[in-house]
Amino acid sequence: MNSTREEIRIDFQNKSKNLSDSEKINELAYSAAFEEKCIDEEISIILTNSLTAKARKLLLPLPSGKKYWDECEYIYPRKKVLNNNGIDKVRKAIRNEYKNTLAYIAYLLAFIAAITGLIAVIKG
Q1: Within 13 Å, how many C-alpha atoms sit on residue 37's CB side?
Q2: Inter-CA distances, 70 with 41, 62, 85, 94, 122, Å
């Protein structure tokens, strides 16, 4: 992610050194900013797809409302992606679900160990 952004900046700097016309430099700056926004949008789409897939697998509800979602502007206009608030909320829900699952597994293992010990004492 950072290497691609760095490549865009280096490319912009190299091309702008050869240009004297401020209009061409502005055009390059706009192009570099556009490419960076497209990269950010792609990252948001990938992250949203990953988190929503995990949430659906765990049967967790996704947050609703503008507070948690943004719309893409460049790659897929009007496609909804999670913003920082939405990402935090979904991640917390996933973490809590995993914690609850691990707690159930721990209780189950303790129960199995107790039953095994009881059987050993009875047969003993």
Answers
A1: 13
A2: 10, 14, 10, 21, 63
Domain that holds residue 43: 2-123
**Could you give the number of structural domains in the chain?**
1
Q: What is the mean pLDDT of each run of 10 residues along the chain (124 residues)?
A: 73 70 78 89 96 96 95 90 96 95 89 93 87
Angle (nearest 5°) at CA 114 between 113 and 118: 115
pTM, two decimals, is 0.69
Residue reference for tokens 């199995």: 112
Q: Are 58 and 65 in contact (CB under 8 A)?
A: no
Q: Establish how many alpha carbons lie within 13 A of residue 70's alpha carbon, considering only the half-sphere containing its beta carbon.
A: 14
Residues 74 and 9: their CA atoms lie apart, in Å, by 19
